[in-house]
Amino acid sequence: MKTYFLKFLILCIVLANISCENDSEDDLVEVISVELVTYENTIKTIIDDNCVFCHNDPPINFAPMPLLTYDQVKEAVDNRGLLNRVSSEDISFLMPSGGPRLPQSTIDLILQWNTDGLLEQ
Ligand code: HEC
User: Fold this and answer.
1) Is the pLDDT at 113 greater than 70, yes or no?
2) Which of 49, 55, 102 to mutate to test the pocket of ligand 1 (most atoms within 8 A of CB)?
3) Best CA proximity match to 8, nearest among 39, 40, 41
4) pLDDT digits (tens, 9 = 90+) for 56-91
5) Which atom of ligand 1 lies at the shortest distance from residue 81's CA?
Protein backbone atom coordinates (compact mmCIF):
# COMPACT_ATOMS: atom_id res chain seq x y z
CA MET A 1 0.00 0.00 0.00
CA LYS A 2 2.80 2.37 0.99
CA THR A 3 4.49 1.68 -2.33
CA TYR A 4 1.39 2.56 -4.34
CA PHE A 5 1.06 5.79 -2.47
CA LEU A 6 4.72 6.65 -3.01
CA LYS A 7 4.52 5.86 -6.72
CA PHE A 8 1.40 7.95 -7.02
CA LEU A 9 3.08 10.81 -5.20
CA ILE A 10 6.19 10.62 -7.40
CA LEU A 11 4.02 10.55 -10.51
CA CYS A 12 2.09 13.62 -9.30
CA ILE A 13 5.31 15.51 -8.66
CA VAL A 14 6.67 14.59 -12.08
CA LEU A 15 3.41 15.53 -13.81
CA ALA A 16 3.23 18.80 -11.90
CA ASN A 17 6.78 19.61 -12.99
CA ILE A 18 5.99 18.93 -16.61
CA SER A 19 2.90 21.07 -16.66
CA CYS A 20 4.84 24.03 -15.19
CA GLU A 21 7.96 23.78 -17.32
CA ASN A 22 8.43 23.41 -21.02
CA ASP A 23 8.72 19.89 -22.38
CA SER A 24 12.44 19.27 -22.35
CA GLU A 25 13.91 15.87 -23.14
CA ASP A 26 15.00 15.51 -19.50
CA ASP A 27 11.37 15.47 -18.35
CA LEU A 28 10.48 12.72 -20.80
CA VAL A 29 13.37 10.57 -19.61
CA GLU A 30 12.27 11.11 -16.03
CA VAL A 31 8.69 9.97 -16.71
CA ILE A 32 9.88 6.77 -18.34
CA SER A 33 12.17 5.87 -15.44
CA VAL A 34 9.43 6.48 -12.84
CA GLU A 35 7.05 4.14 -14.65
CA LEU A 36 9.47 1.19 -14.69
CA VAL A 37 8.65 -1.47 -12.11
CA THR A 38 11.79 -2.78 -10.38
CA TYR A 39 12.45 -5.29 -7.63
CA GLU A 40 13.65 -2.57 -5.27
CA ASN A 41 10.90 -0.01 -5.90
CA THR A 42 7.90 -2.36 -5.98
CA ILE A 43 8.35 -6.13 -6.01
CA LYS A 44 10.30 -6.68 -2.79
CA THR A 45 7.51 -5.15 -0.67
CA ILE A 46 4.84 -7.23 -2.41
CA ILE A 47 6.78 -10.47 -1.85
CA ASP A 48 7.71 -9.56 1.74
CA ASP A 49 4.07 -8.81 2.59
CA ASN A 50 2.49 -11.82 0.86
CA CYS A 51 4.96 -14.64 0.36
CA VAL A 52 7.84 -14.58 2.84
CA PHE A 53 5.55 -15.84 5.58
CA CYS A 54 6.13 -19.29 4.02
CA HIS A 55 8.95 -18.64 1.53
CA ASN A 56 11.36 -17.64 4.28
CA ASP A 57 14.96 -18.83 4.58
CA PRO A 58 14.65 -21.60 5.56
CA PRO A 59 11.15 -21.90 4.04
CA ILE A 60 8.28 -23.12 6.23
CA ASN A 61 4.83 -24.70 5.65
CA PHE A 62 6.34 -26.95 2.93
CA ALA A 63 7.22 -24.05 0.63
CA PRO A 64 10.03 -25.34 -1.60
CA MET A 65 12.28 -22.27 -1.75
CA PRO A 66 12.95 -18.89 -0.13
CA LEU A 67 11.87 -15.65 -1.83
CA LEU A 68 14.01 -13.25 0.16
CA THR A 69 16.45 -11.88 -2.41
CA TYR A 70 16.30 -10.47 -5.92
CA ASP A 71 18.08 -13.55 -7.31
CA GLN A 72 15.64 -15.95 -5.63
CA VAL A 73 12.53 -14.11 -6.86
CA LYS A 74 13.92 -13.71 -10.40
CA GLU A 75 14.84 -17.41 -10.47
CA ALA A 76 11.26 -18.25 -9.43
CA VAL A 77 9.92 -16.16 -12.32
CA ASP A 78 12.35 -17.76 -14.79
CA ASN A 79 12.13 -21.40 -13.68
CA ARG A 80 9.31 -21.93 -11.17
CA GLY A 81 6.33 -20.34 -12.89
CA LEU A 82 5.86 -17.53 -10.38
CA LEU A 83 3.84 -15.40 -12.82
CA ASN A 84 1.38 -18.22 -13.50
CA ARG A 85 1.13 -19.05 -9.80
CA VAL A 86 0.11 -15.52 -8.74
CA SER A 87 -2.23 -15.03 -11.75
CA SER A 88 -4.03 -18.36 -11.45
CA GLU A 89 -7.78 -18.58 -10.90
CA ASP A 90 -7.32 -22.15 -9.62
CA ILE A 91 -7.20 -21.98 -5.82
CA SER A 92 -5.27 -25.27 -5.57
CA PHE A 93 -2.49 -23.83 -7.79
CA LEU A 94 -2.68 -20.19 -6.74
CA MET A 95 0.00 -18.35 -4.72
CA PRO A 96 -0.26 -17.20 -1.98
CA SER A 97 -1.04 -20.82 -1.15
CA GLY A 98 -4.63 -21.13 0.10
CA GLY A 99 -5.47 -17.62 -1.17
CA PRO A 100 -6.89 -15.11 -1.18
CA ARG A 101 -5.70 -14.07 -4.65
CA LEU A 102 -3.65 -10.86 -4.63
CA PRO A 103 -5.53 -7.74 -5.79
CA GLN A 104 -5.48 -7.58 -9.61
CA SER A 105 -3.53 -4.28 -9.46
CA THR A 106 -0.77 -6.06 -7.48
CA ILE A 107 -0.69 -8.98 -9.92
CA ASP A 108 -0.46 -6.47 -12.77
CA LEU A 109 2.59 -4.87 -11.13
CA ILE A 110 4.34 -8.25 -10.99
CA LEU A 111 3.49 -8.89 -14.66
CA GLN A 112 4.69 -5.37 -15.49
CA TRP A 113 7.99 -6.10 -13.72
CA ASN A 114 8.48 -9.03 -16.10
CA THR A 115 7.59 -6.87 -19.13
CA ASP A 116 10.04 -4.21 -17.94
CA GLY A 117 12.85 -6.78 -17.89
CA LEU A 118 12.95 -8.04 -14.26
CA LEU A 119 15.20 -5.16 -13.21
CA GLU A 120 16.71 -5.09 -9.73
CA GLN A 121 16.83 -1.30 -9.31
C1 HEC B 1 0.91 -20.34 3.22
C2 HEC B 1 2.24 -20.59 2.69
C3 HEC B 1 2.62 -19.96 1.36
C4 HEC B 1 2.52 -18.64 0.98
C5 HEC B 1 1.98 -17.46 1.81
C6 HEC B 1 3.02 -18.57 -0.36
N7 HEC B 1 3.42 -19.80 -0.79
FE8 HEC B 1 4.27 -20.26 -2.58
N9 HEC B 1 4.30 -22.22 -2.07
C10 HEC B 1 3.88 -22.75 -0.87
C11 HEC B 1 3.96 -24.20 -0.93
C12 HEC B 1 3.58 -25.15 0.19
C13 HEC B 1 4.43 -24.54 -2.22
C14 HEC B 1 4.68 -25.96 -2.78
C15 HEC B 1 3.40 -26.59 -3.23
C16 HEC B 1 2.94 -26.07 -4.54
O17 HEC B 1 3.75 -25.98 -5.48
O18 HEC B 1 1.75 -25.70 -4.64
C19 HEC B 1 4.63 -23.27 -2.91
C20 HEC B 1 5.11 -23.16 -4.21
C21 HEC B 1 5.36 -21.98 -4.88
C22 HEC B 1 5.91 -21.87 -6.21
C23 HEC B 1 6.28 -23.03 -7.12
C24 HEC B 1 7.65 -23.55 -6.75
C25 HEC B 1 8.09 -24.67 -7.65
O26 HEC B 1 9.30 -24.91 -7.72
O27 HEC B 1 7.25 -25.29 -8.30
C28 HEC B 1 6.02 -20.55 -6.49
C29 HEC B 1 6.56 -19.93 -7.76
C30 HEC B 1 5.52 -19.82 -5.33
N31 HEC B 1 5.13 -20.72 -4.37
C32 HEC B 1 5.44 -18.46 -5.25
C33 HEC B 1 4.80 -17.79 -4.22
C34 HEC B 1 4.57 -16.37 -4.23
C35 HEC B 1 5.03 -15.41 -5.31
C36 HEC B 1 3.88 -16.07 -3.08
C37 HEC B 1 3.33 -14.74 -2.67
C38 HEC B 1 2.51 -14.06 -3.62
C39 HEC B 1 3.71 -17.30 -2.35
N40 HEC B 1 4.27 -18.32 -3.08
C41 HEC B 1 3.09 -17.40 -1.11
C42 HEC B 1 3.46 -22.05 0.22
C43 HEC B 1 3.19 -20.69 0.24
Assistant:
1) yes
2) 55
3) 41
4) 999 999 999 999 999 999 999 999 999 999 999 999
5) 29
